[in-house]
User: Fold this.
Amino acid sequence: MVMSGEKAGGGNGSGSVAGAVGEGARGQESGQGEPAAPPRVSLRERKKQLTYRAISDAAIAMFLERGFDKVSVAEVAAAADISKPTLFRYFPAKEDLALHRFADHEDEAARVVGGREPGESPLDALRRHFLAGLDRRDPVTGLCDAPQVLAFHRLLYGTPSLVARLYAYQGRSEAALARALGDGVPARLAAGQVVAVLRILAEENWRRIDAGESADAVYAGAVQAAEEAFVQLRRGLEAEGRGIP
Assistant:
């Protein structure tokens, strides 16, 4: 799924394609509909996060300006005023410079399920969360036409190595959701279907916006598509006895 977050080159979101791009997904819902309180982190960890952000911001700005394949890791390190070995201590692969913020979203579906309201089913919680994301134009839903988000999406989907790397992040998202659903083969199968549905919905929203439609124009259709997708998902999981009603 398109994981959204940080505004490309802007450095003021949770990273992502979003995920890498946009603050929307940072407003993670809690089970009671309130933003979840951010975990307390040490000064050392905050400094580390700031370093991650600075390096990635420098890299994304260069990637957007010149293209991913035309920027070397050495150039990114120089722009961030660090050595190449230091950069690799933070980012194991060049692709992670653009996509590391997706890590903020790897357990997002799992957190939604874990923090759902009393009596609310996992699937209802995920549906509510996705619809709320559409309403606030969260980049993670693909329904965001901010110029910097569009630029980042075009960079991502126009770079095969980034697309390939993105699937590794999505695999970890599936694994986290499966654990939240109880683990085991049935939970993993259900998690795979849920993550695929969220990805397809977001990609369709992005496709329409990339073709020239505004987020406001796409919104009603995006809500309808999401409602239909969750109905179909529910029917399939109930028929298969996946235990995620």
About this structure: Residues 184-210 form the longest helix (27 residues). Confidence is low (pLDDT under 50) at residues 1-36. The two ends are 21 Å apart (CA to CA).
